[in-house]
């Protein structure tokens, strides 16, 4: 049986709080309305009101904003256990779009479900605010990357962050991870052209730091890569429960 | 008497939910431990554990990250009614620093205060998650600014966002607002040099769109400025209570 304790979201929240039976039961409720979405078909729409949020069960998605002249800025990628559009369910109008990178399975969560869960289990509310804080800390790192890191360090930081997040929910290791992103995804996330992404990846590969090829990221020398990117995973806050 | 309903935080949260007497009482509790902090002395420290959060009662602050080589990326500015370091109280280690831009008054909030408030008033928990979502939406806009907007549009968007936020808590109008920021603050927030900031501000002034001089931002032609920056304030979600 695939019990809720082993769901990616429960694994992730356990870094913040050891969840009780009641809290796990509420989490099971929130996972009820499972749906499948095809790659490339937006499930949250920038500028539209009354959007639901989703808990991603399997697959990868990305959140992005389209600029008026048509360029796209990817804000973040979501992996299993992440909320999709948590901001959109509380803000009246969604400020961004979310697109599945591959076919995904996700559970729909409405504003009322969330408010009900908050009323029943305040610790779960705190855990969800923690998860939102962690998401925001990632966006802040991406902002610092765009504002202050050169292309090599930006790419290295990005690949290391994904690795740490995936390892935490059991989808990767210090060796590497399966990664369905294209060079266009990387370009839109890192503010680079696809040609520039290609060049940066080649340099990292030639320096034997990390290889991204055929849907797989493989770390060569993770310690040197972390040093080069000045990557400190503290902002991911993955070191065991704060609330027992 | 300066009642809690008129505090900037209560005014802001009222955009999300009409707060009950009990909820306002909990908010009063959270405002108890008021402290004064001098300009330039960090009150939250990047990389340190066990940080408190604060509710800003008066003055301006900024959150920032220092890069290893010493450059600074300002993530956001906080104005009265904003939380300072809400992320830091839930994440074990603060991922950023917070510095008062001028002398500020702020109420200290510990993790336990917040968890207690969540247990007593789940709607207030939802309102605080809403405020955190709104903060994240602002960081996302800043990321899009760095990644996709030219310097003029980036500056215009930034001055308009501050204006909308300040007007909402009664500290500005469509005419303009008092602004204690220096060109160095603007440079560190917008990823520009101080010389570039100076040039961009001169151009905006010469085009009669907006003037920033002697601590005051004065809008010349706000409609044209909004069009130029493609500024849509929907992400600030300021249009009246969602929960009655």
What tags apply to this protein structure?
homodimer, 244 residues, alpha+beta, Jelly Rolls, Arc Repressor Mutant, subunit A, 2 domains, four-stranded antiparallel β-sheet, three-stranded antiparallel β-sheet, 10 strands, globular, cNMP-bd_dom_sf (chains A, B)
Mind sketching the topology for me?
2 copies of one chain form a homodimer.
Chain A: H1 8-13, H2 21-30, E1 34-37, E2 53-58, E3 61-66, E4 72-78, E5 83-84, H3 86-90, E6 97-100, E7 104-109, H4 111-120, H5 122-148, H6 151-168, E8 176-178, H7 183-190, H8 194-206, E9 210-213, E10 216-219, H9 222-229
Antiparallel strand pairs in A: 1-7, 2-5, 2-7, 3-4, 3-6, 8-10, 9-10
Helix pairs in contact in A: 4-5, 6-8, 6-9, 7-8
Pfam families (chains A, B): cNMP_binding, HTH_Crp_2
Domain Cyclic nucleotide-binding (chains A, B): 15-111
Domain HTH crp-type (chains A, B): 149-223
